Amino acid sequence: TERGSITLLVRQEQRNDDECVLSFIVRDTGIGIPDERLASVFGNFEQAATETARKYGGTGLGLSITQQLCRLMGGTVHVTSELNKGTEFCVTLPLVVVHESAAATNVKVVEDVSKIGELGGKKILVAEDNEINQKVIFHVLQRAGIHTTIVNNGKEAVDLLETGEHFDLIILDLQMPLMNGFQTATYIREKLELSTPVIAMTASALRNEKMRCFELGMNEYLTKPFVPADLYAALGRFLLAQPLQVKQQQKKPVESEAVFYNLSHLYEMEDAEYFCEVLQLFLSTTPVMLSEIHEAVLYENWEQVYKKAHRLKSSLGILQMNLMLALVTTIEQQAKDEKHIELIPEELKRVNELFELVRPMIEAELEKAVQLNN
Q1: What residues contact 132, with CB distance under 8 A and at least 6 apart?
Q2: Peptide bond into 34 cis (omega under 30)
Q3: Of 226, 127, 126, 222, residue with least CA distance to 176
Q4: Which has the closest alpha carbon to 171: 149, 144, 203, 195?
Q5: Each residue of 205-220: b (16+ CB within 10 Å) or e?
Q6: What count of other Cβ atoms lies within 10 Å of the Cβ of residue 82?
Q7: By C-alpha distance, which of 245, 208, 240, 224 is closest to 109?
Q8: CA neighbours within 13 Å on the CB side: how many for 278?
């Protein structure tokens, strides 16, 4: 509004021990919206006045995304307006009351941290096609002094092993291009006849998948995003004379439970440079992966939709983007089973809208981290 005011209000509507209902009100003294346009302002790419869009910009997606997010959170959004006087938007949400005692989280830690150093000098081969996962696992292993070799798929892994290079342990992502984790493990055991311990890593955590891993001769199975203590404990079982003991301890979260993302996994690494690198990678690779999924949907290549959605899940899991993760998981399963595929375009559209919503937030987190690091 060029003259007048914009007022922000928060009002508690209801409350009990476990839940409260809050209304968030945005009221302006702007140009208002005609009655006949009120019903359409929540539509995609809709703005009340063409001249407003021309003068101030905007995609017309903001209110559509807001309405979808409100519904996902069990809330509502409505608008009232009077032409030439102003507009009021009201978002009403049911929110969980978090008591201080419940704010502490169970965090897995290695009981005797000094023993992690005993892993130093070991050689580990990691086959992983997701760049963000590569960055995360390399950082975790490097902190323990482990010599880590990263390859992008199972084919590169077996090519390296066939040269005769020795590794103390191999970590395989199960879903990779050219040669997946199952095929790679089979080749390692049957063709190369190596007894090197193999740890499977996956974002799926399916029961039959775990059984299959052990049947093919893999020694351990971890889900992504993994807890560093769990990985260290698994390494200790195969590489140390005495296994590392892992225990639960109460710890205050670095940040409160977030709706769109939670960076606590990255903060736990306590490395500002690594933190920035992961966020930069996420911002650069996610639009590419979303574009690839969109293209595969257009060509109705459901196998590629499944594989690329699975790959995207890993990045979303590390940043705990649970709303996007739930949608991408649904797309992955629908594409894999080729069931309800007619829903995928709309679900993918919602994923893109959520990413456009969260992108500036992650950019702000990155900018803040860069400034602190400098």
Answers
A1: 278, 281, 282, 285, 314, 315, 318
A2: no
A3: 127
A4: 149
A5: eeeebbebbeebebbb
A6: 12
A7: 245
A8: 28
Of 121, 119, 118, 124, nearest to 196 (Cα)? 124
Provide the CA 351 distance to its chain's centre, in angstroms.
12
Amino acid at 266: L
- pLDDT per position as a tens digit, 160-190: 999 999 999 999 999 898 999 999 999 999 9
From the list 43, 50, 82, 48, the residue with the least C-alpha distance to 66 is 43
Q: What 3-state DSSP class applies to 90?
A: strand
Which residue type sits at 18? D
End-to-end CA distance of the chain: 37
This model's pTM is above 0.70: no
Write the single-letter amino acid at 73.
M
Rg (CA), the chain: 25
pLDDT digits (tens, 9 = 90+) for 95-147: 888 765 444 556 677 766 667 888 999 999 999 999 999 999 999 999 899 99
The vertex-149 CA angle with 147 and 152, nearest 5°, equals 160
Helix H or strand E encompassing 288: helix 272-298
Query: Per-residue DSSP letters for 33-71?
Result: --HHHHTTTTSTT--S-HHHHHHH---S-HHHHHHHHHH
Token pair for 130: 């997701």
In which band, very low, low, confident or very high, does the pLDDT at 16 lie, cut at 50, 70 and 90?
confident
Per-residue pLDDT tens for 202-255? 877 666 788 899 999 999 999 888 888 889 989 999 998 877 777 766 555 544
125 close to 198: Cβ distance less than 8 angstroms: no
Strand ranges (DSSP E) for 293-339?
none
Detail the DSSP E strand segments found in the chain. 6-15, 19-28, 76-82, 86-96, 105-110, 123-127, 147-151, 169-173, 198-202, 220-223, 246-251
Closest by CA position to 48, among listed 33, 65, 58: 33
Q: What counts of helices (H) and strands (E) characterise the chain?
A: 14, 11
